[in-house]
Design brief:
Number of helices: 14
Bound molecules: geranylgeranyl diphosphate
Number of domains: 1
Helix content: over 70%
CATH class: Mainly Alpha
Order of helices and strands: HHHHEEHHHHHHHHHH
Distance between the termini: 22 Å
Strand content: under 5%
Number of strands: 2
Shape: globular
């Protein structure tokens, strides 16, 4: 199966499972369940849950072993997007091609929808009751907490409008973005019952992939569709955002993104045919255009 068909197929399965797990919009209190579903569907690229599945499959597991965890990761990712869009944080009006949750439901419900998705992620992990569920929970919440996603977000906010070192920018990118991507690949390995070496390899694969992903995201803001990029770049500059091209220049940023991408592909390709999809994802990540 080629990468495009693989991604499409996995996205469908993930959306089906998310819809099964999350409370129906007809369940009382309706507004919060509608807001959660509004932000989760139709969703974005679903790169994190797809990675969890691809890593599980590369290590001999099956989609059914990991799908619940993959959904829990997407819930955490979506909660972080809802909160990031709030006026107190990035103050974005749109997300995933439609009004941001706080624009559609108001700030209070948006905060609660983010909180509820975070809470549901834990319920989902516990209910799945996998033999490795404690390790999976520790991995997911370490990487989402102040030692991961939240830590990166805090440093990003505190660095706004300041000139920061490349060490600080790497800390932000590693924690805000690469941590959740890396733990997706790691959780895939844990769900497959992989050995310590393979779990560690998937963690390293994910860190490299996550860095390539975020630096490419920074680059796309500069290089992408001229109109959109111009608008976004102006917004980033006015908000004093710190980005790779801002600190290292465009050419060097492209070079570094490719380096991370190559390193991820090298790890994945050491798994031969089984690592094919992970290798293709790594090769694609720094070439993506959206
Ligand atoms: C509020 C705790 C907290 C964290 C917010 C996610 C986030 C941290 C900020 C959003 C802004 C941003 C550029 C984050 C970097 C990570 C990133 C590129 C998120 C977008 O991920 P995609 O492109 O989104 O995978 P989709 O919509 O495709 O799922």
């Amino acid at each position: 199966m080629n990468l495009k068909s693989y991604l499409q197929k996995k996205r469908k399965g993930i959306n089906r499972k998310l819809s099964d797990i999350l409370p129906r919009p007809t369940k009382y209190p309706y507004e919060i369940h509608r807001a959660m579903r509004y932000s989760i569907f139709p969703g974005g690229k679903r790169i994190r849950p797809i990675l969890a599945i691809a890593s599980c499959e590369a290590l001999g597991g099956k989609e059914k072993d990991v799908i619940a965890y993959a959904c829990a990761i997407e819930m955490i990712h979506t909660y972080s997007l809802i909160h990031d869009d709030l006026p107190a944080m990035d103050n974005d009006d749109t997300r995933r091609g439609k009004p941001a949750c706080h624009k559609a439901f108001g700030e209070a419900i948006a905060i609660l929808a983010g909180d509820a998705l975070l809470t549901y992620s834990l319920q989902t992990i516990i209910s799945a009751n996998h033999k490795n569920f404690e390790k999976i929970a520790i991995c997911l919440y370490n990487n989402s907490s102040t030692t991961g996603l939240i830590g990166g977000q805090v440093m990003d906010i505190l660095s706004e409008g300041k000139k920061i070192s490349s060490k600080t920018l790497n800390y932000i990118h590693k924690n805000k973005t690469a941590a959740l991507i890396s733990c997706s690949a790691e959780i895939g390995a844990l769900s497959a019952g992989a050995n310590l070496k393979d779990v560690e390899n998937m963690r390293k694969y994910g860190i490299n992939l996550g860095m390539a992903f975020q630096i490419t995201d920074d680059i796309l803001d500069v290089k992408g569709d001229e109109k959109k990029a111009g608008k976004k770049l102006r917004k980033d500059l006015s908000a004093g955002k710190n980005t790779y091209p801002g600190l290292h220049g465009l050419e060097k940023s492209i070079h570094i993104a490719k380096k991370y991408s190559r390193e991820a592909a090298k790890i994945a390709s050491s798994y031969g045919r089984k690592g094919k999809i992970l290798t293709e994802i790594a090769n694609f990540i720094s070439k993506r255009t959206s």
